[in-house]
Design goal:
By secondary structure, the chain is an alpha+beta fold. The protein has two domains: about 80 residues; about 200 residues, no CATH class. Helix content is about 45%, strand content about 25%. The chain has eight helices and nine strands. It has a nine-stranded antiparallel beta sheet. The radius of gyration is 24 Å and the shape is elongated.
Length: about 290
């Protein structure tokens, strides 16, 4: 692995951004001057403007492609070392992710036209096995005249695996997320506040209360407020899934966006979410043990 520090990626990012700006300027100037300059020179300037327009476009495309390569290099050569510091022995693959079959099978997110997943992590922390990855879902609508793409979900999905199955399978999500789950029953808890903030479905409403203890419901509510009603949970077999709709690609470098130690600290905070979930929900307690 090449030993490249943060400053290397900062400098390289700035260089590619400058290159892209030059390309945009060439495209913009060529477009603005196309009609007036072409008319003033009786069309003689058109070939030069065309070359400038095409050349600028090529520069933009090239800079964008290289920027994507830089983003992958940052994740695979720098970020992976930061992850190793927090979760020793953790597997990280920026191009790998969850499969659509697993995510849809967990019933934590509804099906969409397109499914993408990347930035996969797998490891063990304090005896709890975890996996995490970015997931993006898009719906594509075509009315015969135009095609519209709508982002349904963009964020991080976490998976925690335990040694025994839950007494019932449970889905906990936002009230507007699912109207109905075929074969599942809506569960009303004794907490009016919990019922107002989150919707619960289970394949066994009576056994669900063995999992949904008052303490756990309180902790789930705290997480719901922390993530501003953009979180949902799925207790399936021996796995807990947590999905957070952040509307960002978690670790991707972004052109013309700030990138420094402050951003790196944000990445560390996001990586520490796994620890926070394990501690906050007490995932190593008897409810989840063998």
């Amino acid at each position: 692995m090449d030993d490249k520090d943060l400053q290397y990626f900062i400098n390289r990012k700035r260089s590619l951004e400058k290159r892209a700006i030059i390309g945009y300027i060439l495209v913009g100037i060529s477009f603005i001057l196309w009609v007036p300059l072409g008319a003033a020179t009786m069309g003689q300037s058109v070939p030069l403007l065309l070359i400038s327009f095409i050349g600028g476009g090529f520069i933009v495309i090239s800079a964008t492609r290289k920027f994507k390569e830089l983003s992958h290099e940052f994740k695979s050569k720098y970020l992976v070392k930061e992850i190793e510091k927090i979760y020793p022995g953790c597997e990280y693959d920026p191009r790998k992710g969850f499969t659509s079959d697993e995510i849809y099978g967990a019933k934590i997110l509804r099906r969409a036209s397109r499914f993408y997943s990347e930035d996969y992590m797998k490891g063990i922390y304090e005896g709890v096995a975890f996996e995490a990855a970015d997931v993006t879902l898009e719906d594509v609508h075509n009315n015969g005249k135009q095609t519209t793409t709508v982002t349904v979900f963009m964020g991080r999905v976490y998976k925690f695996q335990f040694n025994k199955k839950f007494r019932s399978n449970i889905i906990i999500n936002q009230p507007s997320f699912f109207n109905h789950l075929f074969g599942w029953k809506r569960v009303k808890t004794e907490s009016v506040e919990f019922n107002k903030e989150l919707t619960v479905y289970s394949d066994d409403e009576y056994e669900a209360f063995y999992v949904l203890t008052p303490h756990l419901m309180e902790k789930l509510l705290e997480l719901d407020r922390k993530y501003h009603d953009r979180i949902c949970f799925s207790f399936i077999n021996n796995r807990l899934y947590i999905a957070i709709d952040t509307r960002v690609d978690t670790f991707d470098l972004k052109m013309f966006r700030q990138f420094d130690n402050n951003i790196l600290n944000e990445y560390r905070d996001q990586l520490n979410d796994i620890k926070d979930f394990i501690h906050h929900l007490n995932l190593d307690r008897k409810l989840f043990e063998e």
